[in-house]
Give the backbone structure.
Amino acid sequence: MGRFSPYWFVLSLALLTAVATIHVATYFDLDFLDRWPILWGVYLAIFAIDALAIFDAKDRTGARGKTPMFTAFEPRAQRTADFIAAILMAYALLMLVSAWRFEGAPNRIDGKPVISNHGIIVRQLTEREFLHAKAVDMRFFSALMLAFCGGAALELLSLALLERKKRAKTRVANSTLSN
């Protein structure tokens, strides 16, 4: 990844902040993506950052098959990063289970808010129930994106720290040679 890793890390932090904001809003029954569909671009950018982090880890480690992540961290920090990534994935799974309590998906059919399953209306909802159901539906997806983006941000942090350590060693070696 070379000297650009700090920039990619900063971008991943910006994306993590955006997806965390979208996710927290779902707890207040707000769906920013409904209001501003351009925000779906945040999720597309997360996939790009994830791919960048994984491909870079593969190149750096030369791994075949499963890509080891967080290898630029010291062993103790690597275990912490693995733990944080596992917590984020467990949270995403918990949100999936909470989304399953509905018998279908929240939709508007003929202008009426309903829960429908494969086009069949399961039950009609009040506007408040509809907003809540949409928020719960979105909460799982945003939790999953939070897990992906969090993992990528941790990987890019490890690479940025590794890059900083390499630059510091180079600076020390250069100053030693010049003296």
Residues 22 and 32 are 6 Å apart (CA to CA). The helical segments are 5-26, 32-35, 40-61, 75-99, 127-178.
